[in-house]
């Protein structure tokens, strides 16, 4: 009887592992993953949506300082996903990164909830909002530590959840296929919108009418539920092993290309080094095809006479595969499009805080006994986004498909461009509504009373929320889809983190913009005064950011026109099942080698 060889045993173990991996994942994991993300979004929305009120009314912060504080920590919370994504893609995996990030986020929520419950952790109340005692250094440090913990926790959650959910379906063809990819992102965004809508109605009402203890306690409880739901589903998840640090792979390409800067790349790209076995872990659903852009980087895949590729793998700091070279090219091509989102965030980073302060000066009565909380006005934007996503899928896509022939109606770049235009319109609408609000205040001689209620309905603010909601349908979903679709598959967590990094950088630049406007527009006619918005020039600020967005739109159109989509050689079902690829011969400068490649 023939005894099995060690190689045969390894192959059998790999086959068993692949078979078991196919049984994991699928639609049955979605209740656990989405329960985690919905509860997380509910918690974060309930926590952040009305925080400007907590800082100005409970901690007695001046408006600009409070707005900058929130924007800075929002920027930090949008930067940390890049770190979390690198950790997930390099060694920890997405499951553990999400779990640890959720726990850290929970610690931040517990801390700020305690600060709202214990009177010693906040200054005395100041109903008049004049000559108020501001929070002490110790009280501010409690706030900052809480916000920092939530920012760090966000870094583990945001870049990994959507990609972890996509991992459960294996090949992109299943639910993320070429014709249905947009469907996944629309409905993912729709679920998150429902969670945000619930938070903006329930949690904000509790904060305004019951108290901040319960108002922050409810999100804290929701976050605990999200962690439990996610961990319970652990035995069902398909957990893809991390493929190593993407930054190291990108660095290897640059170093190898630099070392071979004097070499001449072959005219036939098929002569460049390829090794499917080496790239198997980072190209599960397809290999990147050689492109003619950035040909200098191709030198990293040139096989010289002095190199031996019989060893597997070769020295990757001197010789890399075409797939790895194309990973770097893909990232380089994406960056200009990604950067266009930064100034968009800059222009809108403080709008939410300012709109809440506008709403607080307006008539918010729905009836004689009920007032709508200022932060709850965001529900109109969320409702517009939710209904817009449904209409986008059911009406816009079929109609656009008739004219364009594109499976998704329009490309993700076209979708983003439409969103840019609509966002400019939303900001201009905001400026005219502020002019109307102040004209009514002037007519009733209320400009010098910061606590006065101007006799104008708060529902004048609704149109700008609705237009912003329509912009979200196009811009935000399109941006996320672009980053996921065009990034190398082994870097999708990192690509999702780029989405949040753009938000981070935009928030920081937005803080700088607001600070400069506040500093240099004078004391008597300051555009953004600390206490009395009626004497400000908020409409001028809106016009300024509208102009920034117009310049950004021009830049985006140029970048989108020049963009080259990622070429991909998809793995066939036969290749996935058999794991065998044809034998290839690579010959250059008299060097001939035969590579038997197995996926």
Into which percentage range does the β-strand content fall?
under 5%
CATH architecture designation of the largest domain? Up-down Bundle
| Helix-strand makeup class | mainly alpha
**Total discrete domains:** 3
Mean pLDDT level: 78
| Biggest β-sheet: strands ordered side by side in the sheet | 1-4
Q: List unreliable stretches of 5+ residues.
A: 5-19, 172-182, 572-599
Instruction: Please name the CATH topology of the largest domain.
Output: Growth Hormone, Chain: A
Described by strand count, sense and barrel closure, the largest sheet is:
2 strands, antiparallel
Please tally the β strands and state the result. 6
Broad shape: globular
The whole-angstrom Rg is 27 Å
CATH top level label of the largest domain: Mainly Alpha
Membrane topology: Multi-pass membrane protein
Family: Belongs to the major facilitator superfamily. Proton-dependent oligopeptide transporter (POT/PTR) (TC 2.A.17) family.
Keywords: Membrane, Transmembrane, Transmembrane helix
Protein name: Major facilitator superfamily (MFS) profile domain-containing protein
What keyword list fits this structure?
599 residues, mainly alpha, Growth Hormone, Chain: A, 3 domains, two-stranded antiparallel ribbon, 19 helices, 4% strand, globular, disordered C terminus, transmembrane
Explain what you see.
With 599 residues, the protein is mainly alpha-helical. Helices cover 64% and strands 4% of the residues. α4 runs antiparallel to α17 and α6 runs antiparallel to α17 (492-520). The longest helix is centred in the last third of the chain and has 32 residues, at 412-443. The chain starts with 5 loop residues before the first helix and ends with a strand. Mean pLDDT is 78; it is low at 5-19, 172-182 and 572-599. Belongs to the major facilitator superfamily. Proton-dependent oligopeptide transporter (POT/PTR) (TC 2.A.17) family.
